[in-house]
Amino acid sequence: MKNQLSIILILFCTTFMVAQKGKIQEGDWKNLKGITKYNLVFDYSNLEIPKYDNEEEFLKDKMKKREDKEAGAGERFKESWFADRENRYEPKFIESFNKRWKENEIVVDRDFDEAEHTIKIHTTFLYAGYNVGVMRQNSKVDAILTVYKNDAPDKVLFEIKYTKAEGKGAFGNDFDSGYRISEAYAKLAKTFAANLKKKTK
User: Fold this and answer.
1) pLDDT recorded at residue 201
2) pLDDT tens digit string along 73-126?
3) pLDDT score at 18
4) What b-and-e string marks burial along 19-33, b requiring 16 or more CB atoms within 10 Å of the CB?
5) Measured between alpha carbons, how far is 163 from 141 in angstroms, rounded to an integer?
6) Is 2 contained in some domain?
7) DSSP state string for 144-180
8) Domain count, the chain
9) Does residue 105 lie within any of the structural domains?
10) In 76-89, which positions are buried (b, 16+ CB within 10 angstroms) versus exposed (e)?
11) Which end of the chain is more exposed for a tag (fewer CB within 10 A), N or C?
């Protein structure tokens, strides 16, 4: 029994480590050494959502289900779906990244005029997860982070893809999908900041 538990624990840890490991697409971490400020641009184009061909199909389905139960609920869901990006996911990424640097050695923000470099965060996959009390699933986000100098956007300094950044609330208290997804962005930022800190020493 002990051996079985040990094997399960090892497999769980291995899966978690693989899920959080980024795959470099272009450039090298050393290209980012010495950069202390980054402007952030968030991109949600061509978003893949499990069980749907595209985001439009996802929205159409979810809106209809809600509209069938309550007039106006479908449109409210759509508005919330897009508003959560600017109001929840992006601020959560920024907060999570910046708090990893106690002396503000590196700072990121949207519309950051002082920054000479930009990180484009392109979300390519989004799974909202669910929580119905007796059963739940973490949210998951895949994203490609591309770094370039503002005056040379076509010259990529560094690009990395992260898969399965998972989001969940403490003690399973995450019944709101927007909250779960925002926690996935917090995890994405935490992982990127940790890699950046380690690889650019």
Assistant:
1) 87
2) 999 999 999 999 999 999 999 999 999 999 999 999 999 999 999 999 999 999
3) 40
4) ebebeeeebeeeebe
5) 7
6) no
7) EEEEEETTEEEEEEEEEEEEEEEE--GGG---SHHHH
8) 1
9) yes
10) ebeeebeebbeebb
11) N
Least Cα distance to 42 among 145, 159, 196, 151 occurs for 145
46-71 residue pLDDT tens: 999 999 999 999 999 999 999 999 99
The encoded tokens of residue 197 equal 């800190």
CA distance 102 to 29: 21
Quote the Cα angle for 118-149-183, to 5°.
15
Q: Is residue 11 part of a domain?
A: no
Residue 26 domain boundaries: 22-199
Q: What is the DSSP letter of 48?
A: B
In-domain check, residue 4 = no
Beta strands, E only, the chain: 23-27, 37-43, 107-110, 117-127, 130-131, 136-137, 139-149, 152-167
Report the 10 Å Cβ neighbour count for 194. Answer: 12
Residue matched to tokens 């930009």: 118
